[in-house]
Design goal:
rod-shaped; single chain; 3 helices
Length: 131
């Protein structure tokens, strides 16, 4: 399901701003009843939404960049496998994968660490896609 996060944030900012404008005429009553913090809650909600907008934009840019990087690596690995085998597919594999065959080095046939960490087992605790 595709969601436009920026649009959702803009709607939230609008609702918080509308609540602030609606409560503003009742400011003195709210303060005398001990509910003056409601106005500040509305301001904080709108302000945090404004801070969230650039974060969503950066997140989308990173996701797009990683997707393109993944496609590029996938394309390069597929071409290298075909050149090694001299065939259109990896030998004995209908899906183009190694099916976890062991070569005795602690890595599968594709040179990946069997522990699932990739790149020879060097996992620095970073998130996926950052190597």
């Amino acid at each position: 399901m595709q969601i436009n996060e920026a649009k959702v944030i803009w709607i939230g900012i609008g609702l918080w701003a509308a609540a602030f404008v609606i409560l503003l005429p009742f400011r003195s009553t709210l303060i005398s009843d001990g509910h003056g913090w409601w106005l500040y809650t509305c301001l904080a909600g709108a302000g945090l939404g404004m801070l969230g907008l650039p974060m969503v934009g950066r997140r989308k840019a990173v996701m797009h960049r990683e997707t393109e990087h993944g496609r590029q690596i996938e394309h390069e690995e597929g071409g290298a496998a075909r050149e090694r085998n001299g065939k259109g597919r990896d030998s004995g594999s209908s899906s183009g994968r190694d099916n976890g065959r062991d070569n005795g080095s602690g890595q599968d046939a594709g040179g990946r660490d069997k522990g699932g960490r990739g790149r020879g087992g060097r996992d620095k605790g970073r998130g996926r896609g950052r190597r």
